[in-house]
Design brief:
557 residues; 16 strands; 14% strand; globular
């Protein structure tokens, strides 16, 4: 049997199928509790909290993107609206399992109807619902094997869809590939598969009928059941050739004509360091410090912060470590700080540096801890603030860094105003780092979480490339990119052509970007950038740029 899906994580996987087809049964319609509504409401609330805590624990163990994803799911489980809905249904006499089922079903139907990115989140709600119902009914929570299926070979995990909680603790030593019948390129399965470096195919119709040994090509999207040995050898050989080309491009990032482009890793804490080092990161281009502050009733102590920062600095004794100060507010509230008041549009509200202006002690404590952590170490420490819009804000932050004893201060370019007036900001700080995700969100007035507007979030939008070019400007200050755009090998070449001086990305993307740069001269990158900016649409920009980058095809990218 040969099935065609959508490849979302490149590479080839081969192994026995492990099919997850059993679901938690739906509680009987109209099932009622014994009469003590308050006790039943408490039982439901405790089950939801147990699942939320389990998700957070799994995320903490997994680290990296999995921690962020599972933290977001825990927040979904604790949604106040859901809690009220469950409580109200139990008050009408429904049992806790049935009330949970109906409440989650209402919300997931709304997400499914929305389409795009949001419809893919419906599967996440299904998983949370099943876990809560399992707790309430005494069943084992959904899960996957934590060791190879046949005791020796890694298995190919096949499911209708995979929840982040299922995949977070898996490794390539356990799972050879993912295949799902549902899902899409922005599903959490796809995101985590790419972060793990495991081949994955989604939207593969009839995947649940698969059995036996499977060959999975995460590039083409092909899934073959019980393939002939010569086909397995052929596909593996092609993949090995691609990997060999990527591995051959070692050392510091640079173009074919020797122009240096430091390739750095985005990390969310000490747990991400091993993967960054194994993929040849030259340093850290985005150290997200939120992991220390979120989901806490009190701010982290100075000692906690110093310990966490020092571990990252010690990992790159000769490299650059760019630390982003706390980016709280909007969708990342802090329990130990009072909310800034009603915000009809939190994405445009008090977040990032704006939060520091209200609570300066939080910033001064973080900057002091960073300065203390850097003492006696040789890593080049650079500190940057998020959500900076004006030169005045940049100057205020730079002064705070100097007062704390930190020599290099920079800002994130996420607001179009900052990109357009980069010369003004450059007079106040030492460097820039462009966050392409938020810059696109604000440039196109398109919520980055809204799937129906995902086309406007495409990093190939010519207007976004114009803003990046404006941020690079002629001021001469270093300007890196740490948004998702840097992980696309073709886009990485375009960014270099625009004058970007360093690139930071999820660690598994580093080898492909390094190889792509090594195949092209700086002038080819400039030609690709000119072609992309001259296009009218994102798709045309991508095709025009790739036409100027012939070496990508040789790499299978």
């Amino acid at each position: 049997m040969r099935l065609q899906g959508v490849g979302v994580s490149t590479g080839v996987g081969y192994g026995p199928a492990y099919v997850i087809s059993d679901a938690i049964p739906e509680p009987p319609a109209g099932e009622r509790h014994g009469g003590d509504a308050e006790a039943e409401q408490d039982r439901a609330a405790q089950a939801v909290e147990r699942v939320a805590e389990d998700l957070e624990l799994r995320g903490s163990k997994a680290g990296g993107q999995a921690r962020d994803v599972l933290g977001a799911l825990a927040m979904m489980a604790r949604d106040p609206g859901l809690a009220v809905e469950i409580k109200d249904l139990v008050a009408t006499g429904l049992s806790a399992p049935r009330a949970v089922y109906e409440s989650f079903q209402k919300y997931r139907d709304l997400l499914a109807a929305a389409g795009g990115y949001l419809s893919e989140r419906a599967a996440d709600l299904d998983d949370i619902r099943d876990r809560v119902v399992a707790v309430l009914t005494g069943r084992r929570m959904p899960g996957v094997p934590a060791e190879p299926a046949d005791g020796a070979r890694p298995y190919v995990l096949v499911a209708r869809d995979l929840a982040p909680a299922d995949t977070a603790l898996l490794t390539p030593a356990i799972v050879a590939a993912f295949v799902t019948q549902d899902g899409g390129p922005t599903s959490h399965t796809a995101i985590l598969a790419r972060a793990m470096g495991v081949p994955a195919v989604v939207a593969c119709q009839d995947a649940l009928s698969l059995s036996g040994d499977l060959l999975v090509d995460g590039g083409s999207g092909l899934v073959v059941q019980e393939p002939e040995s010569d086909e397995v050898s052929s596909v593996r050989q092609a993949d090995a050739s691609r990997r060999a080309l990527l591995e051959a491009a070692t050392g510091p990032g640079r173009t074919a004509d020797g122009h240096p482009v430091p390739l750095l890793a985005n990390v969310g804490g000490p747990a991400d360091l091993d993967l960054a080092l194994r993929n040849g990161a030259e340093g850290v281009g985005l150290y997200r410090t939120e992991f220390l502050f979120l989901d806490r009733a009190e701010a982290p102590t100075a000692a906690e912060q110093v310990d966490a920062y020092r571990k990252v600095l010690e990992a790159f004794p000769d490299g650059k470590v760019v630390v982003r100060t706390l980016d709280a507010g909007a969708d990342k509230p802090l329990a130990f700080l009072p909310p800034p008041g009603e915000e009809p549009n939190p994405a445009l509200g008090v977040r990032g540096l704006r939060m520091f202006r209200i609570f300066p002690d939080i910033m001064s404590g973080q900057l002091g801890a960073l300065a203390e952590a850097a003492k006696g170490l040789s890593a080049q420490v650079q500190v940057m603030a998020p959500m900076v819009a004006t030169a005045h804000e940049a100057a205020w932050f730079a002064a705070a860094c100097r007062t704390a004893g930190l020599r290099e201060a920079g800002v994130m370019i996420e607001v179009p105003a900052a990109a357009l007036r980069s010369d003004d900001l450059a007079a106040e700080v030492d460097f820039f780092s462009i966050g392409t995700n938020d810059l696109a969100q604000y440039a196109f007035a398109a919520d980055r979480q809204l799937g129906t507007l995902s086309k406007l979030q495409n990093a190939w939008q010519p207007a976004l490339l114009d803003l990046i070019a404006a941020a690079v400007g002629s001021h001469g200050k270093p300007c890196g990119v740490c948004g998702e755009a840097a992980a696309d090998p073709a886009m990485a070449c375009v960014l270099v052509g625009l004058g970007v001086t360093s690139l930071s990305m999820a660690a598994p993307a580093l080898p492909a970007v390094r190889a792509a740069l090594a195949r092209h001269t700086r002038e080819q990158c400039r030609a690709a950038a000119r072609a992309a900016r001259a296009a009218a649409t994102a798709d045309q920009a991508r095709e025009a740029a790739r036409g100027m980058l012939p070496g990508l095809g040789d790499l299978g990218l």
